[in-house]
């Protein structure tokens, strides 16, 4: 019986930090690269990587490398369920492109928005990565 609780403790500890909670909330929308998380949090790569290490060690996220880009995603449905209970359901259909984010996903999404002939006059379009 104690093992059931012991397995849950690292997960809950990882959730008990505002930056890690924000990272996990972003990852509910899908896989994103580290530079996207840096831009979203407004923090340096070293800080974001430190938080991601804690999440990896707790078994909450997985890493995938594609060339020089490093991508993270949620590992399991339990984490997503805990986040939904704590933060409410996500309305995300994918990661939101961020101004100033150099990742390929954001760069491509901005280019697609700018290339649309039916683009509204303002830049408030919300596209997904």
Could you give the topology of this structure?
Layout lengths: L1 H14 L2 H10 L4 E2 H8 L3 H13 L3 E6 L2 E6 L2 H11 L16 H12 L14
Antiparallel strand pairs: 1-3, 2-3
Architecture overview:
The protein starts with a helix and ends in a 14-residue tail after the last helix. With 129 residues, it is mainly α. It has a 3-stranded antiparallel beta sheet with strand order 1-3-2. The relative contact order is 0.17. It contains 6 helices and 3 strands, in the order ααβααββαα. It is globular. The model is unreliable at 121-129 (pLDDT under 50). It has a domain at 2-90: Arc Repressor Mutant, subunit A (Orthogonal Bundle), CATH 1.10.10. The protein has helices at 2-15, 18-27, 34-41, 45-57, 77-87, 104-115; strands at residues 32-33, 61-66, 69-74. The longest helix has 14 residues, at 2-15. 53% of the residues lie in helices and 11% in strands.
Summarize the structure.
By secondary structure, this protein is mainly alpha-helical.
Please name the CATH topology of the domain at 2-90: Arc Repressor Mutant, subunit A
Give the terminus-to-terminus CA distance: 42 Å
The average pLDDT value, as a whole number, equals 82
Radius of gyration: 16 Å
What oligomeric state best describes the polypeptide chains here?
Answer: single chain
User: What is the CATH C-level name of the domain at 2-90?
Assistant: Mainly Alpha
Which regions contain 5 or more consecutive residues with pLDDT less than 50? 121-129
Strands ordered across the widest β-sheet: 1-3-2
**Biggest β-sheet description:** 3 strands, antiparallel
In percent, how helical is the residue content? Answer: 40-55%
Beta-strand portion reads: 5-15%
Number of helical segments?
6
CATH architecture assignment of the domain at 2-90: Orthogonal Bundle
Helix-strand topology string:
HHEHHEEHH
Q: What coarse outline follows from CA principal-axis ratios?
A: globular
Count every beta strand, where a strand is a DSSP E run of 2 or more residues.
Answer: 3
Structural class: mainly alpha
Assigned CATH superfamily of the domain at 2-90: Winged helix-like DNA-binding domain superfamily/Winged helix DNA-binding domain
């Amino acid at each position: 019986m104690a093992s059931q609780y012991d397995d849950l403790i690292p997960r809950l500890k990882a959730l008990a930090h505002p930056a890690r909670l924000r990272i996990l909330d972003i990852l509910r929308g899908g896989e994103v690269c580290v530079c996207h998380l840096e831009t979203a949090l407004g923090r340096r790569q070293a800080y974001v990587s430190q938080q991601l290490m804690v999440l990896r060690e707790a078994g909450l996220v997985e890493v995938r490398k594609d060339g020089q880009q490093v991508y993270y995603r949620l590992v399991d449905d339990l984490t997503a369920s805990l986040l939904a209970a704590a933060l409410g359901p996500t309305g995300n259909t994918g990661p939101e492109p961020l101004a100033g984010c150099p990742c390929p996903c954001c760069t491509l999404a901005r280019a697609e928005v700018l290339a649309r002939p039916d683009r509204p006059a303002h830049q408030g379009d919300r596209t997904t990565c």
